[in-house]
Amino acid sequence: MLFLLDPLCSSTVLRAVNGGMAVRACGLIIYRRLQSAPSSKVTDSIEYLLLQTSYGTHHWTPPKGHVDPGEDDLQTAFRETQEEAGLQASQLTLIEGYKKELHYPVRGKAKTVIYWLAEMKDCNTEIKLSEEHQAFQWLKLEDACKFAEYEDMQATLKEVHQFLCSKE
């Protein structure tokens, strides 16, 4: 199936030439840094936020969702984070230099998910879940990879961690 940008729609909407709509979603991989002992590595204090869905297989994922008409990808990521985790853009710092695009099939349709990286400004900020999710966890890398069942998400979390380590 061939996908083309639809000139009649927002630049973030794709149309399938052979019928069916491609799915596009955007989100934020959110992390926080806990206060750590002076002797420990800074990256040992990093935890990632994962949300457990209330539907389907109850999988764990960063906040993300579908792009609305007229919305750009980054606006979508911040809106979905606010809707799903109760976090405002002002409570987060977007980390420059990281953006990841994942591609996989969902129910016979091509899906693209774009993630940016954001740090919590205050690691004690309360998470307020929407009805779409039933639980959340702050997890160190190893546990986050266990909770995130899909290999592409595990690889993305490891890549994010390496990116953060390289910035130390």
From TrEMBL:
Record CDD domains: NUDIX_Ap4A_Nudt2 (cd03428)
Pfam families, sorted: NUDIX
Keyword annotations: Hydrolase, Nucleotide-binding
UniProt catalytic activity: a 5'-end CoA-ribonucleoside in mRNA + H2O = a 5'-end phospho-adenosine-phospho-ribonucleoside in mRNA + (R)-4'-phosphopantetheine + 2 H(+); a 5'-end FAD-phospho-ribonucleoside in mRNA + H2O = a 5'-end phospho-adenosine-phospho-ribonucleoside in mRNA + FMN + 2 H(+); P(1),P(4)-bis(5'-guanosyl) tetraphosphate + H2O = GMP + GTP + 2 H(+)
Cofactor: a divalent metal cation
Signal peptide: none
Assigned EC number: 3.6.1.17
Domain Nudix hydrolase span(s) in chain numbering: 21-161
Gene3D superfamilies, per database record: Nucleoside Triphosphate Pyrophosphohydrolase (3.90.79.10)
GO function terms (MF aspect): bis(5'-nucleosyl)-tetraphosphatase (asymmetrical) activity; nucleotide binding
Database matches in InterPro entries: NUDIX_hydrolase-like_dom_sf, NUDIX_hydrolase_CS, NUDIX_hydrolase_dom, Nudix_hydrolase_domain, Tetra_PHTase
BP-aspect Gene Ontology terms: AMP biosynthetic process; ATP biosynthetic process
Known role: Catalyzes the asymmetric hydrolysis of diadenosine 5',5'''-P1,P4-tetraphosphate (Ap4A) to yield AMP and ATP. Exhibits decapping activity towards FAD-capped RNAs and dpCoA-capped RNAs in vitro.
Family the UniProt entry places it in: Belongs to the Nudix hydrolase family.
Name of the protein in its database record: Bis(5'-nucleosyl)-tetraphosphatase [asymmetrical]
Originating organism: Accipiter nisus
